[in-house]
Design brief:
The chain has four helices and 31 strands. The chain is mainly β.
Length: about 475
């Protein structure tokens, strides 16, 4: 065991540098004993001694926890979705399972600024997805089934199948062709797998090929599963794979003609993937519960947009003592219409001491961060739709600092404007909506951290990586 003496007031960055040097001088070991378990950096007490070996040095650094941002009594909120932070009841006693609505989202900063939603219909939905994301999924697949561009003889059903956006009702009887499909660009001589979820009107099992046909464009071959899989009572997954003959746009979807049976049914969860077999995504019973062996789960809260408004808010957060703030959010937008991701105060462009992070501000597809002293200033970044992103937003009303960054790409910084001075306000932090009354977010939130000071570069980097660890497809 090696010990190193560190002065109490040494800068945190210096501590890490010295530990790194120490690590290089030590021989590696294969495992830690119980006595060697690391203390996350920033969480040790006021003593002068730190114990480290070559393995635990790196563990100390990698096990840094974002709660350390608040250890000196900083005001703010820290909340990352998980089964231990998301609860189905307002008392915070019933942990959410994927597909449950979240009433209480635990703030782990120690400030007890827990986001809540008292109205059951307005609660976001808790879900999980593998860290690697929904691999091989066509961008035109679920959840846009109700928006299929080519529909004949079918209707959008109001009573959707559980867990999937968009349900199509195929009427029974002899009423002519019933079609719901979309043109997909496919690669020639590539095998694809199409699947969907079906509930027959009579409650019995579907018979693909007899009741309807799954079509993957101009294909050279195709087989249905030998037997549809019942994933819940009366709900069945049917699938087909086929090899495309050309790279043209292909008609991919569900077809029913009068030569099929007279049975009616509903279809949802339309999924098209490259590959010859069903992946974890296509085996999922719900869009809110997707997991894959060997992949770490990332948890999120789903916000449904204007047609399905869901939002949360914290209790009052008093920032009247400070002109500084940092807001980090892991999020993914599904639409290109304007929607706030997080707003402090009613409106950041009108209310002094307010700030906001918005998706597709002004409806132009650019995401923005803005703050107001007595003068409103904002910055814009181009972020693609359906691209999980770590947003980093910092402002100082007195020093006129405005800093906005996405996924650690070169930040957009503006220090030439004038906020007009002042401090931030005391208000609620609204998540997924503007004051809970308009502009509702359609997308996922994977984590959020707000502090009453501008994060030093080292802590900013660490906090971004903590939120990125729970955000699919993002590697910082």
């Amino acid at each position: 065991m090696t010990t190193v003496k560190i002065p109490k007031l040494v800068a945190l960055e210096r501590v890490e540098v010295e530990l790194g040097k120490l690590a290089q001088s030590l021989s590696p070991i294969s495992a830690l004993t119980a006595a060697d378990q690391p203390v996350p950096i920033g969480w040790w007490d006021t003593g002068e001694r730190l114990t480290a070996n070559s393995t635990s040095v790196f563990a100390i650094i990698s096990n840094w926890r974002a709660e350390a941002l608040f250890q000196s009594g900083a005001t703010g909120v820290l909340t990352i979705p998980s089964p231990t932070t998301c609860f189905a009841d307002l008392a915070g006693t019933v942990p959410c399972a994927p597909g449950d609505t979240c009433a209480f989202w635990r703030d782990t900063s120690g400030n007890d600024r827990h986001p809540v939603q008292a109205t059951a219909a307005a609660r976001p939905i808790f879900g999980r997805v593998p860290k690697a994301g929904k691999r091989n999924l066509s961008p035109l697949s679920e959840p846009t089934f109700a928006q299929l561009t080519n529909k004949t003889g079918v209707t959008d059903a109001a009573n959707g199948l559980p867990g999937f956006d968009g349900t199509i009702q195929f009427p029974g009887g002899a009423v002519g062709n019933r079609i719901a499909y979309r043109d997909h660009g496919v690669e020639p001589n590539t095998e694809y797998t199409l699947s969907c979820f079906v509930r027959m009107d009579d409650g019995a099992a579907p018979v693909p090929g007899t009741d309807f046909t799954l079509v993957i464009g101009n294909s050279s071959s195709g087989v249905f599963e030998l037997a549809p899989v019942e994933v819940s009572p009366g709900l069945w997954r049917v699938s087909r794979n086929a090899t495309s003959l050309s790279s043209d746009l292909q008609n991919t979807g569900v077809f029913k003609t009068d030569s099929n049976s007279a049975r009616g049914f509903r279809v949802s969860g339309f999924q098209l993937e490259a590959g010859a077999s069903l992946t974890a995504y296509q085996r999922a019973r719900s869009q809110f519960d997707i997991t894959e062996t060997g992949q770490r789960d990332c948890y999120y809260l789903y916000f449904g947009g204007p047609s399905d408004p869901r939002w949360m808010s914290t209790p009052q957060i008093d920032l009247t003592h400070t002109s500084q703030m940092s807001l980090l959010v892991g999020a993914e937008k599904f639409a290109l219409s304007f929607a706030p991701i997080a707003v402090f105060g009613p409106r950041s462009d009108l209310n002094n001491g307010a700030f906001s992070l918005g998706a597709s501000v002004n409806g132009n597809g650019l995401d923005g961060f803005g703050a107001r002293g007595t003068v409103f200033r904002n910055l814009l970044l181009s972020v693609p739709r359906r691209a999980p992103t770590i947003y980093s937003s910092l402002a100082d009303l007195e020093s006129d600092i405005l800093d906005f960054q996405a996924n650690k790409n070169p930040p957009t910084i503006d220090q030439s404007g004038d906020f007009g001075g002042g401090t931030f306000r005391s208000d609620l932090l609204y998540i997924g909506s503007r004051a809970g009354t308009s502009a509702f977010l359609n997308g996922h939130i994977y984590g959020l951290a707000l502090t009453d000071y501008i994060l030093p570069s080292l802590d900013l980097d660490r906090a971004e990586r903590v939120i990125a660890a729970n955000t699919p497809e993002v590697q910082l």
